[in-house]
User: Fold this.
Amino acid sequence: MKAFSNLISAIEITNKTNAKIEALAHYFKTAPDKDKLWLIAIFTGKRPPRPVKTTLMKEWCMEITGLPEWLFLESYSTVGDLGETLALLLPEPTGQLDLSLHEWMTELKALKSKSDDDKKAFVLEAWAGLDQQERLIFNKLIGGSFRIGVSKKTLVNALAKYSGIDANRLMHSIIGKWSVDDLSFEALIKGQHINYDNSKLYPFCLAYALDKELDELGEPEDWIVEQKWDGIRGQIVKRNGEIHIWSRGEELVTSQFPELVEAFSGFSNDFVIDGEILAIKDNNVLLFNDLQKRLNRKNVTKKLLAEVPIGFCAYDMLEDDGDDIREQSMQSRRHQLETLFNRYTLPNNIKLSHLIAFKSWNELPEIRSNSRQINSEGLMLKHKNSSYHSGRKKGDWWKWKVDPMTIDAVMIYAQRGSGRRSSKYTDYTFAVKKDDGLVTVAKAYSGLTDKEITEISQWVGKNAIERFGPVRTVKPELVFEIAFEGIAFSKRHKSGVALRFPRIARWRRDKPVEDIDTIESVKQLITSP
Amino acid sequence: MYCQQGKFYLDPWSKVDHAIISHGHADHARWGMKHYLCHTDSKAILKQRLGKDLSIETMPYNKPRTINGVAVSFHPAGHVIGSAQIRLEYKGRVEVFSGDYKTQPDFITTPFEPVKCHSFITESTFGLPIYRWKSEDAIQKELHNWIGYNQSQNRTSVFVGYSLGKAQRIMSLIDGVDEVFVHRSIHNLNEAIASSGYKIPKTQLLTADFNKKDVEGKLIIVPPAMLDSRMFKRIPNAATAICSGWMQIRGNRRWRAADAGFAVSDHADWDGLISAIKATEAEEVYVTHGSQATFSRYLNEMSIEAYELKTEYGEEELANSETKTADA
Assistant:
């Protein structure tokens, strides 16, 4: 497991995606095929179910170390990760076990059906034979996320670098149906179990933020205007009876949205369409916050399917029965999209993007200002003659977002930044009033000038009340205007609300802390659709 | 901390007439006292940091002196060069103020010696069982491996550590591997320490306008404040390692954009704190800066009478604008 352990160490220490890809590619060059296969399985959520409960692991660790439970929990809360806490608390190893990744995984797979006594004997033997870092990895192999920032996309890019195979084809291969038991590494990356022609996506056409006056765009009748829904950009590829859904990050997300697969199965034509994946309930678009509950889930439960149903708002068509139509004009592509959709009785959750009717530019500001009420982010402006570019091209696709919402909040925690900001306190946590006290509402670390950061850092130094590792609790005194893109009720947050993209709008030196927002006034910003 | 009988203060924060100083870190040795008393090896450090004209008296380890009827002596704390535990004896009662200490021996500081006492004032910076340091030999091996890897990639190894203590400790760990360059703040302290006759490894000054070719692939030590600087960015092909006890935790290692994090600390780890306290055989223990609540609760559960003591120690970096990360 040394090689895998080194790989994890190399990946976790860097926040540069390229360095992660480099480390993974090196592993693919040097590790045995069976280990590589397991690595891909682990990072694509294809690993076997957890064979040992965490409560048992915690119990055994307390038994070995003789630590009281409260001290174990105190340690856990400092470390923030159970597998790591166990690895740090356990005594030095007494022996040395050297199994490869696939040997460990095979053992762990078999462990699932054994008795608790057998499990305990196995785990204790492993703990006694592994050093701290290997022990951490062993605990993670039992269950739990590595949380080292390796997305499927990163993994695929590393595989592409190693093998020279196209990254999107690899994406389809690793996402596809396969298991460690019935496929070799070579067969997996060559995609022998898939038909890539059926899933191949097109590069997304991207828009710039509008940076000029509307009347500088020319004649209104040359443009189409649509709502800019706040969901996930998605490309639906339907070929030869197969449906594949790609996200904007070029990840295959098909299995996350079974409703969409079902809805588009009703279409007999083949096509590739572009649009927004949204949470749609009772014909209303829900907040991004709701949609988020559906993302990156291994299993989508019935409850979740009912609570946050997924829909799709289509706004462009790239391929029509096998023909690439991206060079055609927006207007013509839109026409073909309408023709396609008119052929079928659309399921309730599939929408054709509504074109906003307007005669003059000065009608648009008001329409845009009402966007938030329907959970839209603003407007999209597309030139009727524009082709579907690969990537970003300035001039014929514009996004025109609504101005952010703001609240006034007080800083209560400060933490040093990273990289070039590590000598200054740059990451702040903000609170608003609740009853007689304060409640945390947002964390933000951008929006101030270097000069302001220096000044605030010095203030934090003088006004820190408590420290928890790198975090300082400060006197609630400095007031800031916090801007954000959206707000929703949240059970996961102590305040009961979650802000989307919070950042510091400005430092309100003029405002005393008595005048900051209350949690009630913050909640009033939430519009119920 | 004030000693009433002796009419002197230990590591005071406001200006007083008579201050006894445990060691040279800025949260313990502050400016503005009329008279200072510190360990022989700390004198040059205090003068370098607080000014040449200080009124300083010194004492070696284990040689008591009586001040207003109180017998005062210094005992090695193993924290940084010249660091001392301060032992006070009055009418047969002994109290020991540990200052900051580290029980594990290293290659450069005088090793910690436990002192029997009635009451012991201990720090608790790393007062959780998750903090257990590797042996100095194991740490040295890790650093050497890392340097070797960097050199195979034509990279310059840059260590980040607090100027007093951590820097000299790193110097002792990497001595002999290759040329070592240090930032001026470290260089000045090194000169002061060496001038008092203390033996430390040889280093070269990293001048503000250093020649890139001279340092490429070599070893460099800088204080944390430099992480932000233009000078730091000029270092060719830098691989950066933060050396601090906080690096024991993965989240802390990853949170900083460094290439490596080594848990090299000048403070006692969990086992060190417990063994030191047991060795004092103290009837009561006062726990200061760090995890005082947790640690004193644990001591009480082990039937060692312990109390939390609130102080402002451990906030060194605030006076210095250097990060805690590297000073711990």
About this structure: Confidence is low (pLDDT under 50) at residues 315-328 of chain B. The CA atoms of residues 103 and 272 of chain B lie 5 Å apart.
